[in-house]
Design brief:
Elements (H helix, E strand, L loop, with lengths): L2 H15 L4 H20 L10 H9 L5 H20 L26 H10 L4 H13 L3 H5 L6 E2 L2 E5 L6 E5 L2 H8 L17 H19 L7 H13 L4 H8 L4 H8 L4 H16 L2 H5 L3
Antiparallel strand pairs: 1-2, 2-3
Helix pairs in contact: 1-2, 5-9, 6-8, 6-10, 11-12
Length: 292
């Protein structure tokens, strides 16, 4: 089995069987194309030519950030595991290679004044303003938001399946958000922000730039559209909503994903832990002896 053939079959299997979103497939394509070019440059054509020490040396030459390298390694491990399971290789390369720590800094929620600044800066751009409102009060990621069908909103209820996880999301939208969305003209009567043509990932990139320009005008530093999703989640957690419910509203496939990003803002958990410590302190003999 040639390296290029294995890469092609793997991509077809991943895309078709796992129904991966386009952005994820593109990530696999990038790293596997890089593997193929490196193999060609070193005179390697079939999988049997790949020796682990050489592959590790190639990986060591990457100049990307640790978080990017981590994601690429996850993809490479998946590919090599696939080649072994398919019987094309005697074992899965990189199976014992440890992943680097991610250097990603968690995005922070926006303050109420920052959200208001975004809305003020977009008053003359109703489509951008409606998108900001939708993402802030629905928690949708930008890819799901900009490809949202009008049929997905019935009254104030928004219902859709997330492109990334396939999880069903149902959120009640504030009346002001529904009015803002209903008032904008769309390029296609079936969608709010999408023509229905082209790639969703390209549409998301376009609107990401549009919102970035609004943030620059508003003076909101470090803005990324995903911070609107963070703001939705943190606002709920700050009001005592259970992490399990926030996870469902965000459309995460696992509560562990939600906890990884939002545990520091879980008010219910903080208050519960405080009560646990307070109860333990009340029965502590040392504290009792010093007059607590």
């Amino acid at each position: 089995m040639t390296i290029r053939e294995a890469c092609s079959i793997f991509l077809d299997q991943e895309a078709r069987v796992r129904n991966l979103r386009e952005g994820t497939i593109q990530g696999y394509q990038t790293v596997l194309w890089s593997l193929s070019r490196w193999a060609d440059a070193n005179g390697l054509s079939v999988l049997e030519d790949l020796e682990e020490h050489a592959v590790r040396a190639w990986i060591g030459s990457w100049s990307c950030r640790p978080s990017t390298a981590r994601q690429r390694l996850i993809q490479m491990k998946s590919f090599f595991r696939f080649t072994a399971e398919s019987g094309w290789a005697t074992r899965a390369l990189l199976s014992t290679l440890r992943l680097p720590r991610s250097d990603s800094i968690p995005t922070m929620p926006l303050t109420a004044s920052e959200v208001q600044a975004l809305l003020t800066a977009s008053e003359d751009q109703p489509r951008e303003r409606a998108l900001i409102l939708l993402m802030r009060y629905s928690g949708l990621a930008i890819g799901d938001a900009v490809t949202l069908r009008r049929a997905a909103v019935a009254g104030t209820a928004l219902t859709l399946r997330r492109a990334k996880s396939g999880e069903l999301v149902t959120v009640d939208l504030p009346d002001a958000v529904v009015r803002a969305m209903a008032s904008i003209p769309g390029p296609n009567p079936d969608y709010f922000w999408w023509s229905g043509k082209g790639k969703p990932v390209t549409r998301a990139k376009y609107w990401r730039a549009r919102l970035g320009a609004i943030a620059d005008r508003a003076g909101v530093a470090g803005f990324r559209p995903h911070r609107l999703r963070d703001t939705f989640a943190v606002s709920l957690l700050g009001q005592g909503v259970a992490m399990e419910d926030v996870s469902t509203l965000l459309g995460h496939s696992s509560i562990q994903t939600t906890e990884r990003y939002y545990a520091p803002w879980d008010r219910r958990r903080r208050e519960r832990l405080m009560r646990i410590v307070q109860k333990a302190n009340r029965s502590d003999p040392v504290l009792a002896g010093i007059g607590q």
